[in-house]
Amino acid sequence: GTRLAPKEKLDIPVLFMPDTMKMYDAVVVIHVMRENGENWPYEDSAALNKDLKSSVTVGENGGIHGILWIYPVHGIPEAPQQKLVPAVVRCQARQRVERRLEVLLTGANAMPAARNSATVNTGKPANIQEELQVTDGFSTTVEFLYELQYQSNEIKSQLGALVGIHLIQRERDIESGIITLIFNVVFAPNKPMRNEATLVVECTTAGVWKFPMLFIATKPEVDDVINIEAVGLNKESIVGFKLTSQTR
Questions:
Q1: Domain co-membership, 156 together with 53
Q2: In the UniProt record, which is one GO cellular component term (predicted)?
């Protein structure tokens, strides 16, 4: 029942307020008709192609009675931001370190349960199910996407090529619904630095979780010690050495 003048704009607010970690889908449908109720003339309404039939309503006496605009809406819940202590990955410059990072996905009770045939017997309690392959153990519709996000493009350019992260294992507690993801993090800095990042984990059926991380690279080992022996008072002593640049 909303009337629009020619070239007038209409804002349509969409409110999303999830109470569980579960993906939602909806469509916003806009149906436009002439104010006087007449149809738009169309020569052959019966021969509308398949794509056009889904976006128009045809009048009984021919012509187009209404036009539809259909907008899909994907509701992606994000876990409440908690004051988590950042996971610290520390390494000396020009060295390489690997760390295991464990994160908990809470509130994912709506996710499909694991299949017993895909579990691995590790001697853990019966309510813990563990799998070694990311694609096994859960319903085939469940996938995890993850990435490291940085505060700026400058930090991304510094850390992007120095950090690698890979999901190697996941567990689920059936009673609480909490999912544990275990990542392997590789950090190989080439110079001292201290930069923050955020690990963003998205479950295709549940939502998004964010975890803070801190990467610290300490000073490297001394390359060599240069000794200069004096040949006498007020006389120069010279020592030569080579430096090789690792970049162009």
A1: no
A2: cilium
pLDDT, residue 86, reads 92
* Contacts with 148 (C-beta within 8 Å, 6 or more apart), sequence order: 159, 163, 165, 197, 198, 199, 200, 213
Does 32 share its domain with 100?
no
Asked if 98 and 174 sit in the same domain, the reply is: yes
Looking at per-residue pLDDT, the higher value among 97 and 66 belongs to 97
Q: Is there a domain that residue 116 lies in? A: no
Structurally, the chain folds into a number of domains equal to 2
User: How many whole angstroms separate alpha carbon 101 and alpha carbon 88?
Assistant: 10
Both 101 and 198 in one domain: the answer is yes
| Nearest in space to 167 (alpha carbons), one of 148, 139, 149 | 148
Residue 114 pLDDT exceeds 50: no
pLDDT band at 129 (very low <50, low <70, confident <90, very high): very low
Handedness of CA 183, 188, 192, 195 (dihedral sign): negative
Q: Are 224 and 118 in contact (CB under 8 A)?
A: no
Phi, psi of 85 (to 5 degrees): -75, 125
Q: Which of 61, 78, 97 is nearest to 211 (CA)?
A: 78
* Model confidence pLDDT, tens digit, residues 168-201: 988 888 888 788 999 999 999 999 999 999 999 9
Q: Are residues 45 and 98 in the same domain?
A: no
Residue pair 184/166 in contact (Cβ under 8 Å)? The answer is yes
| pLDDT on residue 16 | 93
Residues 159 and 98 in one domain: yes
* Whole-angstrom distance, CA of residue 196 vs CA of residue 189: 14
Paired tokens of 111: 């996710």
Statement: residue 123 has pLDDT above 60:
no
Residue 28 domain boundaries: 24-75
